[in-house]
Design brief:
2 domains; elongated; single chain; mainly alpha; two-stranded antiparallel sheet
Length: 71
């Protein structure tokens, strides 16, 4: 297997995992959003100019951990 054949296989595998198309669709595929990339709607300490809601002893530093699944 050549390097170019290997690259083609990797591109095809990535394409299968990241693209969603409807059957018979000729539109370009859209990326699937993995649930771990979603964000909760919670007020961060910065929204209220207060402490971090995860670690109340420190001020919010905009890390976004409180709005994610911890990833």
């Amino acid at each position: 297997m050549t390097e170019e054949e290997l690259r083609a296989l990797v591109r095809a595998a990535i394409g299968r995992h990241t693209a969603v198309t409807s059957p018979g669709s000729h539109s370009p595929p859209t990326l699937r959003a993995h649930p771990s990339h979603g964000l909760f709607i919670v007020p961060a300490g910065s929204d209220m100019e207060g402490p971090c809601i995860i670690e109340p002893a420190v001020m919010c530093n905009h890390c976004g951990y409180c709005k994610s699944l911890g990833h």
